[in-house]
Amino acid sequence: MSTNNERHAVMFIPAVLEFHPYPLPYITLSFNSAQLLQPSHPIPSHKDCTALPSSFRISSSIGRKKERKEERKMESGHFVEHLLSSRPAWLLLLSAVGFLSFLKFSFLFLNWVFVFFLRPAKNLGKYGSWAVITGSTDGIGKAFAFQLARRGIDLVLVGRNPDKLREVTSSILAKSPKVQIKNVVIDFAGDLVSGVERLKEEIRGLDVGILINNAGVSYPYAKFFHELDEETMRSIIKVNVEGTTRVTHAVIPGMVERKRGAIVNIGSGAAIVIPSDPLYAVYAASKAYIDQFSRCLHVEYKNKGIDVQCQVPLYVATKMASIRKSSFFVPSADTYARAALKHVGYEPRCTPYWPHSALWCLLSLLPESAIDNWRLGFCLNIRKKGQLKDARKKDE
Ligand SMILES: NC(=O)c1ccc[n+]([C@@H]2O[C@H](COP(=O)([O-])OP(=O)(O)OC[C@H]3O[C@@H](n4cnc5c(N)ncnc54)[C@H](OP(=O)(O)O)[C@@H]3O)[C@@H](O)[C@H]2O)c1
Q1: Per the CB 3.0–4.6 Å rule, which of 31, 140, 154, 200 could disulfide with 180?
Q2: Cα–Cα distances in Å, from 187 out to 18, 191, 194, 364?
Q3: Which atom of ligand 1 is nearest to the CA of 213?
Q4: Ligand 1 centre and the CA of 385: distance in Å?
Q5: 306-311: strand order across its sheet
């Protein structure tokens, strides 16, 4: 039928073009070739054509396209109908779930690429001109201090060792001479309350826009909970939990007043990425506190212009991790801090170094019991090495 229609339409067009008195651009012919074969639409003669108004469209080819489109639609409609009716319901349901999972995975992957490689970092200066960094004398905290100074942010460096604080201050000033730096000595494992009072005095009147709660301690090496000495247990809870809580409590009122600020709390993969961290129970639990503390503050303060975030590093080559050499999956403190600053002000929880994020994704695919067993074996090995080291020290 379509072949016939086409023939009539083709025959008809030259007739219109020949006899129509209007210039071509204005000639429009609105016959659909399908209509031409209907008895109610006899094929027009040359005479009929000359009577056509200029608003008629030359649409026979368009009509053909439409027709083919409709045919294809019908065919695919029948095909889908046939497909749906000939397959068992469970298979259709499974296919739908598979398709939705594929869509979800594609979206998550594209979002991951955007977050790690395309999304621009926030302008940290918009939060305020000063940053407070705890544990700024070594490792990740020290790297944060250098990176923020490079961006022209003035620094309040908090540490327990005044000599190390002075040393870090002078090396930052050698690289970024324009920044202002204040030092506050606080031993978080000591008299924390009066230390935080001193911090409050130091920051009074300063436009503190960023707080990085980084100071942290862990076990000297993996130990069963019953083997953990009183001093280590107390200092982990004081430095990691109480220190972060009290420093935040001292800094946040100024941010609320100014209606802007960013708080970065350094958590750990030990509490979030792996289901358990055997032989590091108190450390992992202290970081779980940091995670939940951050999440609650994020919700409490997001409408007050304050972005609270928990950053979740996996291994970073520092004194705490007892790893000297960096590698692809264990970045240097500097590489970590550079990645970390790009994420400030975005998600309430993130792992800013992308290979860590990829590892997190892989681990989430494994059964928890398998990760628990692997981690226990790994930590028992660390314990053995630590005990040997202790024994050697005693012998000396
Ligand atoms: N490195 C990793 O693999 C890793 C992984 C996950 C999470 N984290 C977290 O990242 C943060 C930084 O760790 P890091 O690897 O950079 O460790 P780090 O190199 O040992 O540095 C820790 C910092 O905290 C300070 N600090 C320790 N005890 C203190 C106390 N009682 N009072 C005041 N300051 C104290 C240290 O001061 P001193 O210079 O005087 O020692 C140092 O500046 C920690 O919160 C840690 O839990 C690290």
Answers
A1: 154
A2: 99, 7, 10, 37
A3: 45
A4: 22
A5: 181-185, 154-159, 130-134, 208-213, 261-266, 306-311, 349-350
| Residue of 217, 287, 329 to test ligand 1 pocket, by largest number of atoms within 8 Å of CB | 217
Q: Which residues make Cβ contacts (< 8 Å) with residue 211, sequence separation at least 6? A: 131, 132, 247, 248, 251, 252, 255, 261, 262, 263, 264
Give the ligand 1 atom nearest the CA of 141.
16
Binding site membership of 164 for ligand 1 (Cβ less than 6 Å): yes
Hey, whose CA ends up nearest to atom 14 of ligand 1?
A: 139
Same domain for 274 and 322: yes
234 and 298: one domain? Answer: yes
Same domain assignment for residues 28 and 172? no
Per the structure, the complete domain to which residue 97 belongs is given by 87-117
Can you give the pLDDT of all 396 residues of the chain as single tens digits? Answer: 333 443 333 333 333 333 333 333 333 333 343 443 344 444 444 444 444 444 444 455 667 777 788 778 777 777 777 777 888 889 889 999 999 999 999 999 999 999 999 999 999 999 999 999 999 999 999 999 999 999 999 999 999 999 999 999 999 999 999 999 999 999 999 999 999 999 999 999 999 999 999 999 999 999 999 999 999 999 999 999 999 999 999 999 999 999 999 999 999 999 999 999 999 999 999 999 999 999 999 999 999 999 999 999 999 999 999 999 999 999 999 999 999 999 999 999 999 999 999 999 999 999 999 999 999 999 999 999 999 999 999 887
Predicted TM-score of the model (pTM): 0.81
Report helix angle 281-301 to 244-258, nearest 10.
Answer: 10
Per annotation, catalytic residue among 127, 280, 283, 336: 283
Instruction: Kindly state whether residues 7 and 140 are assigned to the same domain.
Output: no
Active site residue 283: yes
Q: Quick one: 330 and 377 in the same domain? A: yes
